[in-house]
Amino acid sequence: MSETRFWLIRHALVEENARAMLYGVMDVALCETTLLEQAPMYQALARRLPRQAAWKVTPLSRTRRTAQAIFAAGYPAADLAVEPDLIEQSLGDWQGLPHDELPPKLAMPKHPFWPLAGDEKPPGGESMVEVIDRAGRTLERLADAHPGQDVVIVSHGGTIRATIAHALGVSADNSLHLSIQNLSLTRLDRNPDGWRVVCVNELPGY
User: Fold this and answer.
1) Residue 196, helix vs strand vs coil
2) What angle do CA 178, 182, 186 make, to 5 degrees?
3) CB-hemisphere CA count at 13 Å for 140?
4) Do 58 and 156 form a contact (C-beta atoms < 8 A)?
5) Which residues neighbour 135 within 8 Å (Cβ) at sequence distance 6 or greater?
């Protein structure tokens, strides 16, 4: 089995009203002003990413728009395959809530760097433990389907944390200590000996 190289990019910044709430898997828009202001970051990603890669996005438009902005910045346009199981963590009934309305609803102490504990499951949603399971299974499937290839995935902060947790075998709570910023690059490789983390939260142009 040959090495598969995964290049994971968190989507661009969403618009201001969405940032004021827990948006999870809601299909919110990107911030148009930031899309223009961060043109050098898209250009840097266009130069950094490998050619001849398979591209994957999630069902949410913010990942597709981010990929298209990278193409517009100089990367040769590629087909975008949708991977539903790489979507963000579903916050269920809590999606759309302003951030300050969540604490009274929590059954467990919140994580220092995330509104929920790693194993807390919102009503109608999923826990980070479940995100790690589905994202991990998806990465293994994609690695089997693309041996010896590069795979670029435009996804979400929670999902990228989950893929790193899968690669390292760490807990959901530990994965939430990872900072995954918008437009950052994370690189994970799977080879016959297992998973290797090459870089996490690398910001283009820095």
Assistant:
1) strand
2) 55
3) 10
4) yes
5) 85, 86, 159, 162, 163, 166
| Displacement of CA 82 from its chain's centroid (Å) | 13
pTM above 0.90, yes or no: yes
Q: Tell me which CATH code domain 4-202 carries.
A: 3.40.50.1240
Q: Among all chains, which residue has been given the structure tokens 């990107």?
A: 30
Helix and strand element counts for the chain (H, E): 7, 6
What is the per-residue pLDDT across 28-81, written as a single tens digit (0 to 9) for each?
Answer: 999 999 999 999 999 999 999 999 999 999 999 999 999 999 999 999 999 999
Phi, psi angle pair for 153, to nearest 5°: -120, 120
Q: Dihedral (C-alpha) 61, 63, 64, 67: value to the nearest 10 degrees?
A: 160
pLDDT for res 206: 58
Average pLDDT, the chain: 94
Rounded to whole angstroms, the Cα distance separating 189 from 173 reads: 23
Residue 163 exposure: Cα atoms within 13 Å on the Cβ side = 37
Q: Is the separation of the CB atoms in 12 and 183 below 8 Å? A: yes
Give just the sign of the alpha carbon dihedral 194, 198, 200, 201.
Answer: negative
72 in the Ramachandran plot: left (φ > 0), alpha (ψ -120 to 50) or beta? alpha
> What's the CA gap between 110 and 156, in Å, rounded?
20
